[in-house]
Amino acid sequence: xxxxSSSHCAAAARxxxxxxxxxxxxxxxxxxxxxxxxxxxxxxxxxxxxxGLLGGLLGFEPFDERMVHYQQEVRQTxxxxxxxxxxxxxxxxxxxxxxxxxxKECHSLVAISTGGGMIEVVEIDGHELSLxxxxxxxxxxxxQGEKAVVQKIQxxxxxxxxxxxxxxxxxxRRFICVKQHVPLDNQQITTLxxxxxxxxxxxxxxxxxxxxxxxxEVPFDTCEQMLAYNRSRQLNLADLAIDxxxxxxxxxxxxxxxxxxxxxxxxxxxVRIGLAGTSWKDRILGSQSTSYNEKQKTGHLLDIxxxxxxxxxxxxLMETKSAMGVIVAAPTAGACGGLPGAVLGTADAxxxxxxxxxxxxxxxxxxxxxxxxxxxxxxxxAGCQAECGAGSGMAAAALATLMGAETEVAVAGASMALQxxxxxxxxxxxxxxxxxxxxxxxxxxxxAVACANMALAGYDPVIPLDEVICTMDDVxxxxxxxLRCTGLGGLSMTPTxxxxxxxxxxxI
Length: 508
Hints:
The protein is of the alpha+beta class and about 500 residues long. It is globular. Helix content is about 45%, strand content about 15%. A hairpin with a 2-residue loop joins β4 and β5.
């Protein structure tokens, strides 16, 4: 993806892509509304929500190079865009309310960014539903004869697909929502469109790279279950991750490893771009990794061995992100430096190949699954412990795996790293994901290196990983909202931060 925040940029782009499909790719105007008690009123412009959402409405994927020119692209298309803040009582801080129009129709869509680029559409045209962007969705709007229409649709689809009738609200347009694992062919769409009671048929393709298969039976949901599953198998964490991913995504083992190798190479390229020096007008920090690299080579830095390389890589990754280059949200864009920086820096020092790195990243991903299952990757929900903290726990497991550790050792490293990250707030200076984000990514990577070594040395984490994750979620939700990526507390409210914000806005 491109942009400072996965919750804002990548997720917003996916929401925009689904909204574009709802409008058959024809949009004349869009009203975007945010709840005044959420995080978006103060961050949607500076953290890339506008870029992601409008880019998605234009049909751009989150990594599209045209994203950075979204304002010019919107002007060229003539789409009228309006942003508004109001009191809607939205329970999630990252809620997008869209009202879309063209010359023939209008629709509304409500969606939330759930963290790390993931989304959920929770309402279309006034009807509650749940779309995660992981399936092919067909919306069939109809006038009357609900039972007969459903029967006809079932006949056309051959009884396949999850069919939901949405007509409970008086005065709202009625439609049938069909979720499937394969797209409808042109003949099926034409047949549905010609039904007597059908008004229009909408096709919403998936926006995630891996779809949810028809039958999901994962081998485990918690770390405790994974360890029990592994007692008779004695697999390392990377192989357990492949077992899980194969079942969860319906993907072959070789394909999983090949995909992760591809992701690793994207990360490596992001490091190279950062080390070459980057620039971007709308950011606080200039290129600092180049200076760090030079100072390290000339002996002007403390000799902290491996950590110097890790700090260098973390900085390079964060600078590529801030210059709108392509990065991997691992686990998020705001935390894109800690995990990859720690793993790539260590792997380069060890002389590891891409496949070894990919397996370490898969091990990290397994820890991420447990975090996702019982907490969140969204700083707006649980503070920076859900981003840099999560990345640190994932990185500790990855580093232990890179060293050939058994699963229990990798899990111990993750538990200790997460314990050390509890309570980390999110207070970006001038609403840019740079300060103190860079430092927190460096801390996350350094913590991961230390905890991996502690685990390899046999240190006792005491608290099981599952319990740490549940505690992390509880702690995160108790952090005041002003310290959860709203730009309303902490360093965000210092006099210097306010001056920087004014300067970047062109008011100074």
